[in-house]
Amino acid sequence: MFQDVQKHSVHTLVFRSLKRTHDMFLSEHGHLPSQDEMSHKIKMAVKRRDLYGPVLHLGRGQRAAPSHKADKSEHLAITAGPGGRGAAGRPGTMAVAPYAGDPSADAGRPAGGQGALVSQEGRGGSGAQGALVPRRPAVMPKPSWHPPWKLYRVISGHQGWVRCLAFEPGNEWFCTGAGDRIIKIFDLASGKLKLSLTGHVSTVRGLAVSKRQPYLFSCGEDKQVKCWDLEYNKVIRHYHGHLSACYALALHPTIDVLVTAGRDSVARVWDIRTKAAVHTLAGHTNTVASVVCQATDPQIITGSHDSTIRLWDLAAGKSMATLTNHKKSVRAVALHPKLYMFASASPDNIKQWRCPEGKFVQNLTGHNSILNCLAINSDGVMVSGGDNGTLHFWDWRTGYNFQRMQPPVQPGSLDSEAGVFALGFDHSGTRLISCDGDKTIKLYREDDTATEESHPINWRPNILKRARY
Fold first, then answer.
1. What is the pLDDT of residues 164-181, one digit of tens each?
2. Which of 69, 162, 307, 469 matches a 20 to 30 Å C-alpha distance to 82?
């Protein structure tokens, strides 16, 4: 007769199994096998060769030539196996070759691992005279000192918010466009009004002066793009095609091409001479707020309220890359006048990029406002202007914010009208002009009386910033 098998709970069975396992290995508990001396020698020899292979012969009393006996013994220690036979390919061997003393072993291989050293022998010196030189550590860049900027002139004359700015190539005058639908031209040295151009029927949002012809280009919220002949002070061409307000425009520096962008979410490329539309750069899903042009790829860069930046191939009329790092609308993009780089501004932060593929470089944080404009000069000073009227001055290389400023509003204006809508350095980089919401144009220059002692650098980065240039 079969006996009934007693049923136990899973809990009981598990603990019984644990007890049997414990009883089985109890005798070996606490008695680990002793370390094999030969294995330890092999391990240390391999580690020594890996860390200090190129300079092992320099550590042996600075002899001119390494001792072949010592190298041979070390080689045997590495290759000898448990079987006691050191020839590669035989039973019981562990071949780790070539040995450390062989100068050809590490040819073309940089010294790896921590504490790696570089000998002077490979730089033309002899092994006897070679010195041990530690590898140069990564250094943290220090900001360049820039003198603070100060307000020295305020120009009033517009009857609306001043929205855009452009400089003449000869650096003699500049022009501004505003909500009063008028384009005004001022003398840069004296600040006096030279000319007023009327023709737009809504706010003027973009201006550009050609370096190749005596032409001024303007665009506005009336969907119009105009070409002004500055010899006759009148409009000679219109570029029709935008379906909504036009917010930005840029001239190509070497080709007779004009790029405009606006609220219809596209950038349009125009032939200046024939008024023909060359390309319609479609891809953004919201207002295109800024556009810049340069002579090398990417020749056109646009920033949009859809939080993306697009780099465009002008020949194909297609997007080369889309940068999605920003989390909020990108209202300003600015090119560096010397470096092959550009910056973009958004309420979350300012980002620096390297062309041509748009490689991210670093974040500049601290300007907690909606940023409308950016300007960069050749001395490495970048300025950002916010909707609350604040100006932040940055050192381009390190992202150090060396000055913050909030100029007073025009008497009679509200504090809420303190926004900065456009910024620009003149061609010398020594004067900065801002276009503000209090209907004024403000001019800034460096403080000549400031020194490094009176305005020291207070550089305390939150995270370690390494040199990227």
1. 999 999 999 999 999 999
2. 69
Identify the three-state secondary structure at position 295.
coil
CA distance 275 to 270: 6
Contacts (Cβ under 8 Å, ≥6 apart) of 286: 265, 304, 305, 306, 329
Give 30: exposed, middle or buried? Use CB within 10 Å, 0-12, 13-18, 19+. exposed
- Rounded CA-CA distance 460/261 in Å is 39
**What is the CA angle 83-86-88, rounded to 5?**
110
Report the distance separating Cα 103 and Cα 281, nearest Å: 59
Phi-psi map region of 92: left, alpha, beta (phi>0 left; psi -120 to 50 alpha):
left
Closest CA to 423 of 343, 346, 332, 341: 332
**154 with 456: CB under 8 angstroms?**
no
- Whether residue 126 contacts residue 64, with contact meaning beta carbons closer than 8 Å, is answered with yes
Helix (H) or strand (E) holding 37: helix 37-52
**103 has a pLDDT exceeding 50:** no
**With left for phi above 0 and alpha for psi between -120 and 50, is residue 48 left, alpha or beta?**
alpha
Residue count of the chain, please give it. Answer: 469
How many Å separate Cα 247 from the centre of its chain?
Answer: 25
Give the pLDDT confidence of 329-373 residue by residue, as tens digits. Answer: 999 999 999 999 999 999 999 999 999 999 999 999 999 899 999
Omega of the bond prior to 408 within 30 degrees of 0, cis? no
Nearest Cα to 66, choosing from 118, 109, 113, 121? Answer: 121
| Domains, the chain, with CATH or none | 37-134 (no CATH), 149-446 (2.130.10.10)
For the segment 216-271, what is each residue's pLDDT rounded down to a tens digit?
A: 999 999 999 999 999 999 999 999 999 999 999 999 999 999 999 999 999 999 99
Residue 74, pLDDT > 60, answer no
- Rounded percentage of the chain residues whose pLDDT exceeds 90: 64
SS3 at position 318: strand
Q: What letters, b where the CB count within 10 A reaches 16 and e where it falls short, cover 307-320? A: bbbbbbbbeeeebb
In what side-by-side order are the strands of the sheet with 350-354?
332-335, 341-345, 350-354, 359-364
Cα–Cα distance for residue pair 127/54, rounded to 1 Å: 11
